[in-house]
Structures are given as structure tokens and as C-alpha cells.
Amino acid sequence: MKVVMAGYSKTGTKSMAAALRLLGYKVYDFMDHFWYHYEDWMKIMERQSTVEDFRRMYQDVDALTGCPAFAFWEEILKAFPDAKVVLTTREEESWYHSTVGQARVLESYYKFPLMQILTPTGRKYFKFYRALARVVDGVDMNNPFHYTYHYNEGLQRQKYRQHQKYCEQNAPKEKLLVYSVKEGWGPLCAFLGKDVPSVPFPHSNVGGVYIEDLMEVHPAFDRMEREWRLVLFLLTAMGLYTSYKIYSHGWMGKAANFFSNFARRRFSCFHLSIS
């Protein structure tokens, strides 16, 4: 482990993951934590962590970014004491509105909440995200259709300030870079001892579109998509079979007669009560 990203979510963590990969690092970001270490992280978030857990999980990884790793930067640094810490920062007003904006994007992507209910991988993802929300935000999410309902603005801003200030005050000064992605390659490469790449600094997840991007490339979403297609196939097959049975047994006509008679009786009672 060479780099631990300690910056809060929506402070440029996706851009940092892309930048570190361009610098040659093997990076684990949010979905990688879920995909490769789901059981470990559920144990860590629901019970406790040990230095040995993190050392085993990330011994072959160069850099960590995103949730839930940023919330455990101190424990991870104990497991890898030679690693450097990058604390990404962002102006608070911009950070908060970006956080809420991304949640609204997730809510508007209709298929994604349904996947979290109807597919095995999706249900695991929601369980993971729910545990993360409890640990990082101190709130509980009841369902995957409402990502914004739990955003208490004052509380979220306070947690953001506390996390950023705590890291800045407690990370070893000689290993810490307080950094904004707006600064580009220069400060980051100087801190890491890397040559400045010839390509522009990446800017990822602009407007909170990372779900659509990940749908195309990440194995977790590939599996979720395949499970989703199977669920749709099975539901369609069940619907067709049920329709066939209803038709073949004459249940449709019986149901129509039942509702017709029911309506006639109700109308008759209504007519008598008026009379």
C-alpha cells in the first residue's frame, strides 16, 4: 500500500482514482471495496476491524479511494505505516450540493433501485450501502428508492467538517498532502515522486453519472445486469403462463361474470338506498 485517500466522498475521489491509475497505481475504489471485500467490510462496519484485516485485504493494492475506506484511513495507515495520505478537499457549499445531486441521480435511475430489490447482487449492494450510510452518515436507509431522504443538511455539513479537520490535524504531517483536484498534476506528482503525465488531469463523475459509467465496465454491475435480465425473463414467463392458465380454464370469463354480478349488486343496493 502506497497511497491512502482520506478525503470525504464527493471531494474528487473518482477523479483521484483515475489519476492514480494513470500514474501506474493499482487502485481500489468504492465498487472494488464492495466487489472484492464485501464480507470483510460488512464485518468491519457492523462489528470491528483489526490491523490484520486491512493488511490481508489490501496487501497487493497500491492505493485506496472512496467509501468506506476513507472513513478508516487511520486504521489502514496502521496496517501500512509507510503509506502516504492524501486528503482531498472541496469548498463546503459545492461539496454538499454535489452530494445531494448525486443522490438524486441515483433515485432517477429507475432500474438501479429495482435491481437492489430483485437481484441477489443488488440486494448485497444495498445491504453494503446501508451499512456504509450508518457508519459514515449516522443514518439508516429503509429502501433503495430514496437516497436523499436521510440528508439532514446541518448534520451532513458538520460530519464533513469534522472528518476533514480530524484528518488534517492527526495524520502524520510528513506523510500528508491536503489537496484539491483543481490543482492538477503538479502538487500530487511532487508529493508522490512521480513524473507529470502528458495527459490532462482526469475529471470523473461530473454530475454524478458514475453509475452509468460503472454499468459499462465494472464486474459487479455486469453480474447485476445479467441477474436483472434473468429476473425479467422469469417474470415474463410467469406472466405468460398465468395468462395461459386463466384463458385455458375459462377463469377469465368467470372472473368477468363475478365482477359484473358484484357491480350489479352494488348498484342495486345504491339505487334502493336512494329510493
TrEMBL record:
Source superkingdom: Eukaryota
Keywords: Membrane, Transmembrane, Transmembrane helix
InterPro entries in the record: P-loop_NTPase, Sulfotransfer_4
Organism, scientific name: Clavelina lepadiformis
Keyword Phosphoprotein: no
PANTHER family the UniProt entry points to: P-LOOP CONTAINING NUCLEOSIDE TRIPHOSPHATE HYDROLASE PROTEIN (PTHR36978:SF4), P-LOOP CONTAINING NUCLEOTIDE TRIPHOSPHATE HYDROLASE (PTHR36978)
Protein known as: Uncharacterized protein
Transmembrane segments: 230-247
Keyword Transmembrane (UniProt): yes
